[in-house]
Amino acid sequence: MDTNLTSEKSSLIKFLALYIFLTLIILILASMMYYKFEKEVMLYSRLPKLQEYSKDVIRRIRAMHESLLEDNYYPRYSTFKSAIYDADHVKIFSLLENEHIDFQNFLYKNGSYIHFIKEPSLYYLGAKYVIIEVKDDEIWLHKVYKNIVLFGSLFLLFMGLVGYFLVKQFLKPMKNSFILLNNFIKDTTHELNTPVSTILTNIETIDKNELPPKINKKLNRIEIAARTISVIYKDLVYLLLKDKFPSTLEKIDINALLSQRIDYFKSMAESKKIKISFSQSPCFLEADKQKITRLIDNLLSNAIKYNKIGGTIKIKTFSRGFYIEDSGIGIPEEKIGEIFKRYKRLSSSEGGFGIGLHIVLSIANEFGLKIKVDSKVNQYTRITITW
């Protein structure tokens, strides 16, 4: 069934989404580790030069400290900048562009600058720390970003293909099971059609007025069971073959069609002593008659199935729609949005597969019909179809 294929695709997409999400997390962690590694490599490649700069600054401030000349100036360099801080991390003098100093690390990247902290053996000019600052050209960083994008994309593509292949392998047994199940349902429904049609045809030829009441009652039960099986058969055929038969549009007299279907379900309604009232106004619809019949049959079947003994069914047509209202168990307000889901059954006390209202929704969507559900628990359910 196409729905099974849709379910398979949905499962495939969900698994791949989770798989790719986890792959992205791994990729992000790996990228962070790669970035950190490359940054450390870059910093330590600069270390010898930074140590050389710091030694020169320390030599110059020692000379200033020892000369105590008033015209001494703090050393300045074109290739780097420096600063000196005391033991309490208070600035004594600074030429730094970025003065956010991390005294916990001796070598680190600070924005677009690299800082190196050196402690002189003696406190020249009261300096406990000498900070060297150089500009980071960030060539290494652009290379890191380029590699992350390139190899990350290739990694994602590879993992996506692997994930897709694995999911297809995992879902293959499920797909084969769906195919076997679909073939079984098709064969079963085909075999059911002939005997059920034969039973109903023969029942309709019998004059029930000539039969004893006891036999007549048993015959009614047989007829109800056969009609129930017939409705299930037609629903299954619709689900299996709906996409293989194009719709044939014709002008449908909804009053005539409803009257016909009410007559079809008459014995089922009488078995629960349900009274059906039908209020008519001129009502026509351009659609496929067989599919609209399926829609009406499912609404009537549910109205009987979920009704109470001795209940009522009210049917009313108007110019652009109709409604079917039963006096049954009703639907909780929070559950109304779920009743059209496939295989959804809100009550386990009645039989069925939970496909009837799903078929109603499918047919309504095909012909642009609107569905409105009004219901109160233990009072009524009214389903209105408009166009």
Offer a few descriptive terms.
single chain, alpha+beta, Heat Shock Protein 90, 2 domains, 5-stranded antiparallel sheet, 7 helices, 53% helix
Would you mind describing this structure in some detail?
The protein has 387 residues and is an alpha+beta fold. The chain has 2 domains: 2-141, no CATH class; 246-386, Heat Shock Protein 90. It is 53% helix and 18% strand. The chain contains 7 helices and 12 strands. The protein has helices spanning 2-67, 139-205, 213-241, 254-264, 266-271, 289-305, 356-366; strands at 81-85, 91-94, 107-110, 113-118, 129-135, 249-253, 275-279, 284-288, 312-318, 321-326, 370-376, 380-386. The strands form 3 sheets. The chain has a 5-stranded antiparallel sheet, with helices on one face. The longest helix is centred in the middle third of the chain and has 67 residues, at 139-205. The protein is rod-shaped and about 135 Å long.
Secondary-structure content class = alpha+beta
* Termini Cα gap: 29 Å
What is the correct CATH architecture of the largest domain?
2-Layer Sandwich
Helix content: 40-55%
Q: What is the CATH superfamily label of the largest domain?
A: Histidine kinase-like ATPase, C-terminal domain
Using the CA coordinates, give the radius of gyration.
41 Å
Number of strands: 12
Contiguous low-pLDDT stretches (5 residues minimum) are none
Q: From N to C, what is the helix and strand string?
A: HEEEEEHHEHHEEHEEHEE
Report the CATH C-level class of the largest domain: Alpha Beta
